[in-house]
Amino acid sequence: MEGLKSRLALVLPVLVVLLGLAISAIAAFRVKEENHAMASARFGMAVDKLADQLRQRFQHYEMGLKASRALLLRAPEDMNAADFHEFFRISNFNTEFPGAMALSVARYVDAADLTAFLDWARSHVTKDYKLHQFAPNPGPHFPVVFIEPLQNNRQALGLDLASEAVRQRTAIRAVMSGQATLTPRIKLVQHNTEQGGLLLILPVYRAKLPLATPFERQQALWGWISLPLAINQMLGGLFDGYERGLDLHLYDVDDAGQRVQLFDANDDDPSLHKYHRAADTPDLTGQLAFVSRKIMMVGGRKWELEVASSDAFVHSLHQTSHHWVFIVGSLISFLLAGVLWAVSRTRDRAVSLALDMTQSLQRSEQRYLEMVTSVPGAMYQFLVRPGDKPELAYMSPKINEMFNVEIQSFDDLLQLMHPDDRERWMQSFEDDRDGVVRHFQGRFLYFGDLIAWWQSNSCQTRRPNGERIINGLLFDITERKEIEKNLLAVQQRLALATQTARIGTWEARLPTGALIADDNLIGLFDCSRAEFPQQISALSQLLLPENVDEWRAICSPGTDLENVAGELRLPDRDGLIRYLVCVAAVERDEQGHPSRLVGVMYDVTQLKRKELEITDSEQRLELAITAGGIGLWDWHVQSGSVTYNQQWSSMLGFQPGEIEPSLSAWERLVHPDDRLKVEQALLSHFKLQSDIHVCEQRLLTKAGK
Description:
The chain is an alpha+beta fold. 41% of the residues lie in helices and 22% in strands. Among the domains are: 57-236, 2-Layer Sandwich (Beta-Lactamase); 375-483, 2-Layer Sandwich (Beta-Lactamase); 502-609, Beta-Lactamase (2-Layer Sandwich), CATH 3.30.450.20; 629-705, PAS domain (Beta-Lactamase, 2-Layer Sandwich), CATH 3.30.450. The strands form 5 sheets. Strands 2-1-5-4-3 form a 5-stranded antiparallel β-sheet, with helices on both faces. Strand 15 (503-509) and strand 16 (514-517) form a beta hairpin.
């Protein structure tokens, strides 16, 4: 029996070692798999964020162009260089659109109108305005008429975009689609490097013309507004602040599938971007661990974003090494085997005690890890002795992941804080009230020079010896701060837009009828705030009598309101009629009753007067046509329908409506000997070989003569 016990005393430690090694190997394998999965997920999130950032950047450029078109080019024929310069001066383009070399406007000019256009440009732009071309171009022309800033961009003034094939194709695509369109990579005339650039082009149409079809958009075309973009300056700072060890490339893919590189994050100039492989981190495999390729449509172009990760990316995550898991597990196994060998005579009690201690430790560590990892931030504890600066007693491991550096002392954390916030943070420790939750917001520096906003929530307790223990939580609020910043910027841009466009906003509280208006709206009514009505029904006092009943019916309490859209008429100080367009949306309470009206008003007096002038001119023209005995016909090319005025029908002996409104009926009225000549003249006109259709022909009367 003693021999058996002795053999068991020898065998048991060996079994413990083997079992420990097996468990350690399994644990190491699980850690390796989990590390790989976490790295893969982190990489996917980084790639998605890169793609979203890229899309948002170009949406921002497109929105900027559209806003400029709406505010600046409402009456493009009346604009001059001084107006364009003033708009650019107050628009803050340099900071709003990184990489944008300039803001430019180009016009569409037929070859026959070139002389008249040059006269206009020399009076509205500059007296020495000249047309520049990449290659001879008979027309039509797309000359640049305005560009700001003129410094470093003067060579682009007067440049004919139609004289170069890529720019011409892109401008035409923008017109046909009605959307902002990008060129492939080109050499910008104002960019003195070989890196190339892009041109983002948005069409500008004449007001009040239909734009539903490409043909209608072509007929309404006035010109284009565009942004010349330097690629590296535009994209260089876009990807700052993401994980290290990422290899990033951006390609333009043409219709044939050929790729042209737009951006390489491994550029030799580190001041432009930081997406090169970390030079101080060894590459263990010599190969990239993860690769992602995303296809996206940007400005009518197909772009491919290629992102790959190296081992440096995995190292930057500061994951627990599976090798260390195996080593530590193995050491514990050997240690436990030694303990079993040393206390073999009391092995049962020792094993039971070790097992209990291990399980208790595991449960305690598990609870601690669950608590620490689940908290959305870093937990910390500071020790403050009387008359001394705070000491770092504890900091959860998550802090190292947040800042990508190892924090070992209070001074390490203090050095990461923005210099402008350090004194204010140190002063916060002077508050020695117990049990009071203190909140502090400040900026921290990480990845060298990037700034993140953090908030600290802490509470202190006091020991009998006078020492203070401050326990707290530190968490990232950068995204919230960015949202607040963007919201403020949007509000400022909206205020500027409404002020520039003379758009007034208002709100009516229903059913009380209380009226709230901004300064722009009060200015539209040409009165002071004290004179402006406080009730929506009282607004009728400022309107013309024929407009009063309509307004009161809309705004009366109890009215089943729908969305409001109408025209207000009021007298100005000169006794003339002014016209305001009023648009408002109805908000309803939980019971479905109208609770509030929110809307805008804007002045359309000049447009209204132009409409009246046009109507009067059309009436005079109709009288002249009737008196002169002029016959008119109108052929709608897409539908094939043809209409005639009464005079045209009477000249051929027909009554109004007797002629079928179709192209075939018109062709039958053409004399057989003249039909070939008519068809050739129409074909020449449709091929743009003639600006207008002119053809002398004979027509058959109703009697067939």
